[in-house]
């Protein structure tokens, strides 16, 4: 029997390792098809980031899933590595029941480690199984589960394999103890702290029986392990298993070497790995591929992202689109891309010549469009994204969902001309009128006539650069110039700067849309035209310090313009005003005797990490401040980002209403915001409720600056 | 006194109001003659034309003239211009009227002025251009002045004319017969006009409060023959279908008259209607930005103001 | 099928427009110039016709100063094949009659099956040029179409007439005019913009086209502007408080404005 067992184990092992190796090669070949992108800068920092994310579980411990799962996961992760030694031991035990690893096999410290890790692993995996069972989709509200759409059998299979391995290791150790005990070995007293008590029950068995028990347990352990390798090898789309290997690479190669989530600026549009400059339009080849039209247009990192997805669904649980019954879930989108990539991998990795000889069914599949009714994802999925960044911020393996979604939008807009018709108006207005609403440029200074102090408009006194004595260029923005509530914010900020003695200047008709909505909608060409125009003006007049009231302008000016040669120090008005209050240049004299809550705009918070200044300002101006359930980096989008402000929201419930209701539920009388678009969206939501009798009575949505102005004026 | 030809605009045998306006204008310029093209001329029609001063009515009543678009009318008028040497030809500024005028101008080597809102006795026409921003006085300097006049430019004044029938017949050119009308479908009776093309749009917003509330908006629209629009707040709240949304993410309209009811006037709405010629606003909130845009505004409850307006319009329209 | 789409470069439709003091012509320099947006419906329809037929040629035709070439490029970026740009100093200030004469001279003999137009230009808003061109070329006139069917040598349209929808057919060659909402003009793809740069645009002078200089331009105009005045800026509206007669007040206002 021993020989038979050994032969079977050897054959199984060879097959498993062979298949596994073949699949690994398949992964590498597929990733190599992806377009080039440089992700190897600062290798030391990247390694440090990897270690932090793995061992401190910096991403994984985030709420709402929280630390219990993070710690359990960390234990399993470490145990998986450590217990590899027990697999080696098991092979030895097939030959000799008393086999122990040389040198360390009977070293007490090693034994303690193995036993502690095994027990912990069993406990941890039971917790993880329990969490998965408890959080599984329930038939009434399946979408509420973050596991909705995850392949549950795969996860259970992986988890039960780990559980089984743990039990095998413990049972083996107990049998080793029993055999050692019968043989009168000394080492058993110092090597089986947590399994000796089990082995004690088997000391009545004969040495032969114990040898057979060890043989069978070791064989069983090997079979379970190899079955796992075979299953995983045969299922390259089994993210929950493959992340065990791929996640390390995905984390190391993430966009930011320092581990900051891939938010703020978008990745530039690339061709052959080089960021495109549309100023050099004439040098572009005629058949230039823009954005992602086919799977092969993705970068290798995007393909790695898709394969790494563990289907944990943390992104899904945070996604404003998913939570309002839209068809988009960042997880399901990633899974769809991954599954399609692997389904057509033989086609992707083939040369043009080889492709012609492939199975016609495969060729047909490869020609399936990424987007459309018969596509890998539907148009509704693609265009539901608000680019709020909640998914990117959550993802434990650093998948950059937004970059991929926008890259697909780029192709839809620039190559295929397939996009929601409402965007036509947006694009035309930005292109022809320099603002999304198609207002006349001459209206940009209208607000100035509504304030009773002087506002300097650049060029009025014939200057051709911003004078030295000007502290800030005040970038008013389109909303700030044209939209009524945002105009009030503009006037507030101007007045507050005036009171505090901050000198500022505006560009007036020299301003034009930063291009943010065009870029989020995939129109990189229009974005670059707008950006080039603005950068030319800003560089020419030597702008250095800029204050904005719109987080989208902030993100464009501060995070995106550097990609095109515009480098400025840009602050949001809440940052500037908070500094002025702290410096005593603005004093809230009359505190507002109302409770205030604050909605974090995605492009101020998650994308630019400005969380505290608005809160400090509110605390300085209002009697009491209350947080919404979802706040700071877990804030829930208002629904306007990603150019959604310019599209109709026809599917599911309304994102702004969901957020508005959450704000109303705090009982606060003032809902403070720091973004003109959040202001419009939440105002709409609150107004809707105010029409219903007894709801949201006397609740007002205001910009933070309004609170400060109310408090600063007595 | 020179003769002034007026092309009669009639539907189902009855003379349109715009024709009585043109005849009234023609009285101030010379001797009005009506030109009836197509079958269906009746004594009653002749009586109406006479009532507003037509001395002669040229009748070209072959069905041939209306079985082909535009060109036959231009050829009939062209023959009359050649035969009668009128001092001017007046045509209503409907889309087809302007096209007839266009072909007539080419055929007779004459200057054309479209969309006049007034004509002085010396045939200087007044036009309002650029959405009403500029008023222009212009004059035709070649051939027979061909002027299309906007409806409602003048109030019809009765001044009896003989309305003597003069039959006219013209051999149509091959070119005029090269396009043939094979079918006519009357505009659906009672149906509201298309939102983007309506001369009048009556819109409701959040202030309408509920889907049922749109009843008063529709009543007002129907009394004016107007299209119904809605703000994004109203369509989002489900008060009215999305297809009727006016604004940034909906339709852009530019009617002669826009009546905004319970619409605050957020920029996203204004983006879709700010080029309307005349804007009337009704809103409870005196601070609503829509009032800044409005030519006439009423601060009040739309559920009392709008039904009253509907009644008043019905009364005035008789 | 060979289709000409006549387009015009106009001042941005929403910009404030004014007449020049000297010659009473539209001051085109002070405002952004764009492709007349109503022409986009004709371009779109032309593209759809050739696409449906699986071939053909769409030629963009314009008359205007040098910079009107931008409007042609814009139209080409939507997918048209080539352009013809009639540019000549003698043409400046042409009225509708002169314009239609020049276009007719330019178009005749080029073998177009369809000569297409938008319903009007957003600056002059006369909507007479398509009819004039049809008259001059002796072609059937199929204008104000909101639906077009081309089969063989026959074109059938649904014309939105003054009193309903008329179905009209004619044999090609014909003049075809499209109205707004007849289709949804495409937003030029980037590929289209790239391709447009390399598409041929033939520049033609008045003499090349055999145009009699006396019949065009300001001097060839058959009508003239005697005077003009900017209407005083829109006075602030009247806002009244409803005290029981708000509806009647509106009706009175509307009556006074002659919109009832």
From TrEMBL, chain A:
It comes from freshwater metagenome. GO terms for cellular component: plasma membrane. Residues 300-330, 375-405 form the 4Fe-4S ferredoxin-type domain. Keywords: 4Fe-4S, Iron, Iron-sulfur, Membrane, Metal-binding, Oxidoreductase, Transmembrane, Transmembrane helix. GO terms for molecular function: 4 iron, 4 sulfur cluster binding; metal ion binding; oxidoreductase activity. This is Unannotated protein. The chain crosses the membrane at residues 6-28, 68-92, 112-134, 155-175.
Automatic annotation (TrEMBL), chain B:
Keywords: Electron transport, FAD, Flavoprotein, Transport. SUPFAM superfamilies: Adenine nucleotide alpha hydrolases-like, DHS-like NAD/FAD-binding domain. Transmembrane segments: none annotated. Gene3D superfamilies: HUPs, TPP-binding domain. GO terms for biological process: fatty acid beta-oxidation using acyl-CoA dehydrogenase. This is Unannotated protein. Residues 4-185 form the Electron transfer flavoprotein alpha/beta-subunit N-terminal domain. The keyword tRNA-binding does not apply. It holds the Pfam family ETF. SMART domains: ETF (SM00893). It comes from freshwater metagenome. GO terms for molecular function: electron transfer activity; flavin adenine dinucleotide binding. PANTHER family: ELECTRON TRANSFER FLAVOPROTEIN ALPHA, ELECTRON TRANSFER FLAVOPROTEIN SUBUNIT ALPHA, MITOCHONDRIAL.
UniProtKB/TrEMBL annotation, chain C:
It holds the Pfam family ETF. The keyword Electron transport applies. The keyword ATP-binding does not apply. GO terms for cellular component: cytosol. Coiled coil: none annotated. Keywords: Electron transport, Transport. Residues 23-213 form the Electron transfer flavoprotein alpha/beta-subunit N-terminal domain. GO terms for molecular function: electron transfer activity. InterPro entries: ETF_a/b_N (IPR014730), ETF_b (IPR012255), ETF_beta_N (IPR033948), Rossmann-like_a/b/a_fold (IPR014729). Belongs to the ETF beta-subunit/FixA family. This is Unannotated protein.
């Amino acid at each position: 029997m021993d020989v038979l067992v050994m032969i079977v184990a050897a054959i199984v092992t060879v097959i498993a390792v062979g298949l596994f190796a073949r699949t690994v090669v398949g992964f590498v070949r597929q990733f190599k098809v992806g377009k080039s992108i440089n992700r190897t800068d600062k290798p030391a920092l990247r390694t440090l980031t990897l270690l932090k994310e793995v061992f401190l579980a910096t991403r994984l411990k985030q709420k709402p899933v929280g630390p219990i799962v993070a710690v359990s996961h960390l234990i399993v992760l470490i145990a998986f590595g450590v217990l590899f030694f027990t697999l080696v031991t098991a092979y030895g035990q097939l030959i000799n029941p008393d086999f122990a690893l040389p040198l360390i096999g009977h070293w007490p410290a090693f034994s303690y480690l193995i036993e502690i890790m095994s027990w912990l692993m069993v406990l941890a995996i039971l917790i993880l199984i329990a969490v998965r069972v408890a959080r599984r989709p329930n038939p009434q509200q399946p979408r509420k589960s973050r596991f909705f759409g995850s392949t549950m059998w795969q996860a259970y299979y992986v988890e039960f394999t780990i559980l089984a391995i743990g039990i095998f290791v413990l049972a083996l150790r107990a049998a080793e103890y029993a055999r050692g005990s019968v043989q009168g070995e000394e080492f058993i007293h110092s090597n089986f702290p947590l399994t000796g008590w089990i082995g004690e029950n088997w000391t009545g068995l004969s040495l032969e029986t114990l040898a057979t028990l060890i043989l069978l347990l070791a064989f069983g352990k090997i079979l379970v392990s190899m079955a796992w390798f075979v299953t995983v090898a045969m299922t390259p789309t089994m993210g929950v298993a493959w992340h065990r290997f791929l996640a390390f690479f995905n984390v190391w190669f993430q966009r930011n070497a320092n581990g900051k989530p891939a938010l703020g600026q978008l990745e530039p549009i690339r061709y052959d790995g080089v960021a495109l400059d549309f100023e050099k339009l004439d040098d572009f080849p005629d058949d230039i591929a823009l954005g992602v039209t086919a799977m092969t247009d993705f970068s290798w990192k995007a393909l790695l992202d898709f394969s790494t997805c563990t289907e944990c669904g943390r992104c899904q649980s945070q996604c404003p689109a998913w939570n309002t019954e839209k068809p988009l879930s960042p997880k399901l989108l990633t899974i769809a891309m991954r599954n399609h990539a692997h389904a057509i991998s033989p086609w992707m990795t083939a040369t043009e010549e080889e492709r012609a000889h492939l199975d016609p069914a495969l060729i047909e599949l490869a020609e399936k469009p990424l987007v459309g009714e018969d596509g890998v994802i539907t148009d509704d999925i693609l265009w539901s994204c608000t680019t709020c960044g909640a998914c990117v911020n959550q993802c434990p393996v650093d998948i950059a969902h937004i970059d991929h979604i926008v890259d697909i939008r780029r192709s839809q807009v620039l190559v295929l001309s397939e996009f929601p018709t409402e965007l036509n108006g947006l694009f035309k207005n930005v292109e022809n009128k320099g603002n999304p609403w198609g207002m006349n440029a001459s209206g940009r200074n209208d607000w100035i006539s509504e304030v009773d102090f002087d506002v300097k408009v650049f060029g009025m006194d014939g200057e051709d650069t911003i004078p030295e004595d000007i502290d800030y260029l005040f970038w008013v923005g389109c909303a700030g110039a044209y939209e009524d509530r945002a105009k009030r914010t503009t006037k507030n900020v101007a007045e507050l700067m005036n009171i505090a003695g901050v000198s500022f200047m505006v560009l007036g008709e020299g301003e034009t849309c930063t291009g943010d909505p065009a870029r989020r909608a995939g129109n990189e060409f229009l974005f670059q035209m707008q950006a080039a125009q603005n950068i030319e003006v800003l560089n020419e007049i030597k702008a250095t310090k800029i204050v904005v009231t719109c987080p989208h302008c902030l993100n464009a000016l501060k995070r995106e313009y550097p990609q095109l040669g515009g480098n400025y120090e840009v602050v949001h008005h809440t940052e500037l005003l908070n500094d002025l209050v702290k410096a005593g240049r603005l004093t809230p004299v009359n505190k507002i005797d109302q409770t205030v809550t604050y909605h974090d705009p995605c492009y101020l918070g998650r994308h630019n990490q400005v969380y505290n200044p608005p809160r400090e300002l509110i605390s300085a101006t209002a009697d009491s401040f209350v947080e919404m359930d979802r706040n700071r980096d877990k804030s829930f989008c208002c629904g306007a980002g990603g150019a959604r402000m310019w599209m109709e929201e026809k599917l599911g419930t309304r994102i702004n209403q969901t957020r508005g209701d959450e704000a109303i539920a705090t009982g606060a009388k003032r809902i403070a915001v720091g973004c003109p678009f959040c202001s419009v969206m939440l105002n709409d939501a609150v107004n809707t409720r105010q029409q219903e009798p007894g709801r949201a009575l006397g609740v007002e949505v205001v910009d933070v600056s309004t609170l400060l102005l109310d408090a600063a004026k007595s | 006194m020179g003769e002034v030809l007026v092309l009669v605009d009639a539907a189902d045998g009855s003379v349109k109001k715009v024709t009585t306006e043109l005849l009234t204008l023609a009285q101030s310029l010379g001797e009005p003659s009506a030109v009836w093209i197509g079958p269906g001329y009746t004594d009653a029609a002749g009586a109406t034309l006479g009532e507003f001063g037509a001395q002669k009515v040229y009748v070209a009543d072959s069905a041939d003239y209306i079985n082909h678009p535009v060109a036959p009318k231009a050829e009939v008028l062209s023959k009359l211009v050649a035969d009668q040497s009128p001092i001017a030809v007046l045509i209503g500024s409907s889309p087809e009227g302007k096209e007839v005028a266009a072909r007539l101008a080419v055929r007779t080597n004459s200057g054309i002025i479209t969309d006049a809102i007034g004509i002085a006795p010396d045939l200087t026409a007044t036009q309002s251009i650029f959405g009403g921003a500029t008023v222009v006085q212009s004059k035709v300097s070649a051939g027979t002045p061909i002027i299309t006049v906007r409806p409602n430019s003048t109030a019809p004044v009765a001044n009896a004319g003989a309305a003597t029938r003069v039959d006219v017949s013209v051999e149509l050119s091959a070119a005029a017969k090269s396009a043939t009308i094979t079918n006519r479908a009357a505009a659906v009776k009672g149906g509201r006009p298309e939102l983007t093309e309506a001369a009048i749009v009556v819109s409701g917003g959040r202030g309408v409060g509920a889907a049922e509330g749109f009843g008063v908006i529709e009543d007002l629209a129907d009394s004016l023959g107007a299209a119904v629009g809605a703000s994004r707040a109203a369509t989002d709240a489900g008060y009215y279908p999305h297809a009727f949304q006016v604004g940034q993410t909906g339709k852009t309209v530019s009617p002669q008259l826009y009546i905004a009811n319970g619409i605050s006037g957020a920029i996203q709405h204004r983006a879709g209607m700010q080029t309307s010629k005349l804007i009337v606003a009704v809103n409870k909130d005196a601070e609503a930005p829509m009032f800044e845009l409005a030519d006439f505004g009423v601060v009040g409850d739309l559920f009392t103001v709008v039904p009253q307006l509907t009644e008043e319009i019905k009364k005035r329209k008789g | 099928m060979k289709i000409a789409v006549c387009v015009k470069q106009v001042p941005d439709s929403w910009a404030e427009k004014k007449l020049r003091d000297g010659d009473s012509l539209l001051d085109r320099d002070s405002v952004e110039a764009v492709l007349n947006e109503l022409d986009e419906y004709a371009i779109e329809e032309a593209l759809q016709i050739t696409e449906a037929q699986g071939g053909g040629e769409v030629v963009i035709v314009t008359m205007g100063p040098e910079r009107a070439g931008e409007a042609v490029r814009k139209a080409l970026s939507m997918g048209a094949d080539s352009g013809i740009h009639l540019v000549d100093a003698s043409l400046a200030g042409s009225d509708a009659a002169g314009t239609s004469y020049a276009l007719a001279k330019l178009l005749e003999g080029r073998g177009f099956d369809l000569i297409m137009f938008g319903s009007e230009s957003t600056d002059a808003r006369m909507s007479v040029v398509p009819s004039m061109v049809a008259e001059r070329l002796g072609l059937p006139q199929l204008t104000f179409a909101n639906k077009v069917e081309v089969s063989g040598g026959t074109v059938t349209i649904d014309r939105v007439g003054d009193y309903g929808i008329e179905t009209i057919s004619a044999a090609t060659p014909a003049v075809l005019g499209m109205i707004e909402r007849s289709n949804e003009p495409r937003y030029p793809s980037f590929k289209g913009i790239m391709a447009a740069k390399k598409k041929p645009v033939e520049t033609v002078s008045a003499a090349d086209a055999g145009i009699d200089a006396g019949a065009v331009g300001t001097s060839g105009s058959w009508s003239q502007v005697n005077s003009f005045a900017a209407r005083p800026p829109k006075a602030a509206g009247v806002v009244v408080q409803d005290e029981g007669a708000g509806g009647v007040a509106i009706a009175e206002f509307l009556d006074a404005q002659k919109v009832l």
